[in-house]
Amino acid sequence: MEDKLQILLQQDICSVSELDSWLAEERLLFAEVEELITSHQINFYRDIKNTNKRDVYLYFQTNIQPLLTKYNAEFDKKFSNCPFSKLLEEEKYGYMRKVRLEKSKMFNEKNIPLNVRENELITKYREILAGITIEWDGETKSYSYIKAKLDSPNRQIRERAWRALSESHMIVKPDVDGIMNELVKLRHQMALNAGFSNYRDYVFKLKNREHSIQDCYTFHESVERYAIPVWKRLARVFEIELGIEKYRPWDISPCTLQKAPFNNVIDLLDGVEKMLGKTDLYFKERFQYIRKQGLIDVEERKNKAPGAVCFTLPKTRNVFIYSNFSPSFNAINALIHELGHAIHFYKQFANESGVQEQYLREEVAELYSHSLELMLVDKLEIFYPEKNEFKKAQREQMHRAFSMLISPLAGDLFQHWLYTNPNHSPEERDAKYLEISKRFQYSSVDITGFETEIGASWIESFHYFQYPFYKIEYAISQLGALQLFQIYRENPEKAINLYKEGASMDWNLPIADIYRNTGVNFDFSEQTIKDISEFIINIIEDLN
Hints:
By secondary structure, this protein is mainly alpha-helical. Helices cover 67% and strands 4% of the residues. The chain has helices spanning 2-10, 16-46, 51-81, 90-106, 111-130, 143-148, 155-193, 199-206, 213-242, 265-277, 281-292, 329-350, 362-375, 387-420, 426-439, 451-456, 463-466, 472-490, 492-503, 511-517, 526-542; strands spanning 133-136, 139-142, 296-297, 307-313, 318-324.
């Protein structure tokens, strides 16, 4: 493989057309390497206690990835210095050119060993979380099994599960704190090496964000001003439904539903396939293909990494859908969400744009996953056939949609603080997370007596470890998805066509253009937040 990299790196480029051909060869070569690395990552996630799979995965992370990082830097430099790069078509190559020029300027070889160590720490974190087991009714159960108990309509079971999960956090917290302490220091040093004063500013440049740091703070403040009051109104709705006087931490999950929506993974897959079939033939066909090719693993089991992800396999132009949830409302959402990513990727593979995941912006990727969740909300009767339960399921889906405007912003603000205060202590970190949580997602909840547990609960979010500063994108894209949902309620066919058109747009276009072609605005202004908040509460109140 290194021979191929060397040949391509040394290749002469004497015209715009030759540069275009060189870029195509580069895409194919890196697609081959990326798919190999991703395949080993999938194998590791599916059986995280398997030492052979772990060793192979770590070998690629500690040996192959650093080598690729060096070659990537050389390729970026070659492209940036090529006189023909400036003559490439702006619409097709403008964004990629901007990214590569910026990366070339920011690259520092001192950061390569830091990246290696960063990946080792992330792997260690994944192993710790995957290894959590909890005693439940005399049996040893996985973390995801107990988490599904938070959906129980029985409040005593919910509280017991919440306390058990919190206790499991506290057991592993010393080790996780050590990992986060080192990650913050490593990332701060990366920023210093690249000429930045902190990791937050470094990441904004690295991500080539199309919004500013100040835009983030304005977004936080606008949601706190306009969405949080509606969030509190929504809590009163659920308090009445549950017949409780105080909304406690174990009451905020989808616990108004009377039973688990499915019994096994086949029921889950078949049910979602039916939902897709009632929505759009292309959606159903893509899912049938994924199932037939074995490109999916959503079965809950021990020794499997937590969470959900849609992996891209760029060489074969495929995806792999992965999740680890017990039978629950959240398991349905996780599968549909990742399917939204899958459909987006397949549309990208089909448009011959030469999609490369490092250029796909999260604000775009999450638009199609959130939108698919909302466009399937009227098909939840597949899992909840009784009329009253169907209404409750729809209401829970809208509650989730609203939470995706709020919780991600708390996570974003938390990370701003983490990386602009790199010398903080674990105690200060927990205190800051508690403070921000009380302002946002727990603003409507009585957490008296559980402040320590809430302050420590950040350890559950793998984004803080593996994908730093990947949070606010959920909230931005949710605003776009809710705009598309408004269209869907009036004209489903139009909304679905806009979804497919937007998902097919060249990744090189500005985010605002991609959103516009999806029929929505790339807009997180105060007025939009206020309007969307009222839209959600009105739907939920209508479903009562």
